[in-house]
Design a protein that fits this description.
heterodimer; A: 417 residues; alpha/beta; Rossmann fold; 2 domains; 7-stranded mixed beta sheet; 5-stranded parallel beta sheet; 15 helices; 15 strands; B: 396 residues; mainly alpha; two-stranded antiparallel sheet; 2 strands
Chain lengths: 417, 396
Amino acid sequence: MKYFSRRKFLGKTSNLIGAMLAAGLISTSVMATEFPTAEVNTTGLAVTDDTVTVGILHSLTGTMAISETGAQEAERLAIKQINESGGILGRQIRVIREDGASDWPTFAEKARKLLINDKVAAVFGCWTSASRKAVLPVFEQHNGILYYPTFYEGLEQSKNVIYTGQEATQQILAGLDWVAEEKGAKTYFLIGSDYIWPRTSMKIARIHIEQVLGGRVVGEEYKPLGDTQFGSIINRIRLRKPDVIFAAVVGGSNVAWFRQLNAAGINSDNQTLLTLSVTEDEVLGIGGENLEGFYSVMKYFQSLDNPNNKAFVEAFKAEYGEDSVIGDVTQAAYLGPWLWKAAVEKAGSFDIDKIVEVSRTGEIELDTAPEGYVRLHPNHHLWSYTRIGKWNRDGQATVVYESPELIEPNPFPEGYQ
Amino acid sequence: MMNFFIERFLGGKQGAVAIGILALLILVIFPLALDLFRLNLVGKYLTFAFAAVGLVLLWGYGGILSLGQGVFFGLGGYAMAMFLKLEASDPESTAIQTTPGIPDFMDWNQLYELPWFWVPFESFTFTLLAILVLPALFAYIIGVAMFKRRVGGVYFAIITQVIAVILTVLIVGQQGFTGGINGITDLRTLNGWDIRTDSAKYILYFINALLLLAVIMISRFVLTSKFGRLLLAMKDKEDRVRFSGYDVSNFKIFIFCLSAVISAIGGAMFTLQVGFMSPSLLGVVPSIEMVIFAAVGGRMSLIGVVYGTLLINFGKTGFSETFPELWLFFMGGLFIAVVMFFPNGLAGIYNKYVSKLAFLQRYLPAIKLPKSKADTQSNASSSASTSDNAAEGAKS
């Protein structure tokens, strides 16, 4: 794996900042004149000689705020760091924040505002699939670019979206392979909230379990979003005694699900559980004691031991407080501005079409990502490692497995549809 | 003839002036003053105004509080969305699917053919009829079930709210048939006419605005009829109307159906202008928001609620753009201010202060026609029922 050493990383940054301070405005103007506005912006985006405006579009209010706040903070942190190190093509990034208010029409309205009124050069945002689906036609019609941070169901590949989280197969297949091998699992119980992401994930999981792993699915259950009564499902689990519970329960239901499981005496001493939907953020609500010993499959955990991640965690805590936690999506959101910077610099332009063009080359990469090295696939998703974390009482996970290689993103998996 | 029109459809001279000002605002001033993006937003707000106008009939005059108007808004919106989605899902543009020619979300949910209840929505005529008939039918069934059994007041409000919850759960749960929580998205053309273009947005805005004015006039016609007076009488003393030999429940069912249809028209226009429909528009929260629009605008005023809807939504958009993290507090403050200082809403402010300005008193008599009965009545009743309002507010 290619990591910058932390010292080297910090050294580089401080040198740059030093140079910036010494040269003052001259350095920026020199850099900006190297890239005249007329050349880097041929489509009328909000780019001036010394600034470029981007949008951040997340729910700051409503039920999704608790999840999306971390992502939004990470994006602001990345932008701040980029600005401190000289900006993009000599331009400082200005941010316009909009609140999607956990409401899909509002997301569409705000996306329209950012693209039509503010002419932002890029948008970082959205969390739920529903919000992405709502803004997608807006981005396609007005040719904007959206960096979308959440792990999601796949089945989508838009020219106007860069997906920085994992699509379903990246997360699921490696996770199932691991439990089958490590725990010798034969029987699986699938449970999820009832919407597109868990349904698609479980469809992929079932095919993989039955046709590749030679295992058996002994139950597949869905609960409406927000439902908090898991008693009958827990009884069914007891009856069928699966080797593994494979879970994708989200939001408030997640808290009830793990607490009731624990109250029913099902814990890591007597049951293996692998979940797709618990990150450090969710553990805050669920409580580490209810999760202790269960596993999550993600591409990132806060406890990852590498210099990039140490620097990232330190910077994040310095910005947002010692108690803040960083989950998978927060890290993926942090990658957005950096990936955009890499694409803009490679294209030498802010024009959306040129960014899309270089993104399609498969050569946009980041050495400095907290999750390690990542590369953008021509299908607009990221090559990434998949990791399995075992939850501890303190709400942090110990990484017990890491895929040996970067896993290729495959939003339209043949044979799994 | 002209007089009849002014009296019955516009609500007399004063009403005609008020509706004229509103028409001037939404047909001339907004399109001239706002860019297309903002105008499209106003168009979206005005679709909610349909629901608010429906609530003036139902709640303001009928005294029946429905916390489920979002259901009808949603029915209209979904009917339109189904038609548009089918048109957007032609076999060519869905060629990558397992089953080309069906909506994308059905393909993701392993459906291999179009469900039967989607099939009729391939016809535009059927869709238009469905937008008007489905909500009316649904409201009729609810109405018969409740009003014939003399269920009213708080119980009716709670039951309508529960219906909103049930419908949301149903739509979210049956995602293969309905698009689930994502809703029906990515709508493109209406009979081959691209609704996403700038010119289409202008045209849809004006259609929407004219429809709203038409709905207000029709509502005014209903309220200035004998039926309108009976409605008020029912609200004030239901038993007296019943003992006078009227079948109260039929009146209630009628007004409930009418307000449902009006909401549904708003919903269909919403889908056309915003380009998608989702369950978040027909649940409890939007339904209550519609009641708030009516309350802020003044629930006895067909025109006032349009301003109420506009004020709240401009506030929502404006505050949330300026203070992305704090805007909900400002909205809360706005509601509290309205309830505390202007219990009759914007229309109450108008009646209390603006219409009594001295200069109006001086210049108006020359052109003053006899005041229309409806207006005197509504003014009288709204001031008389202030104490009632307070009592009702405390109850709910």
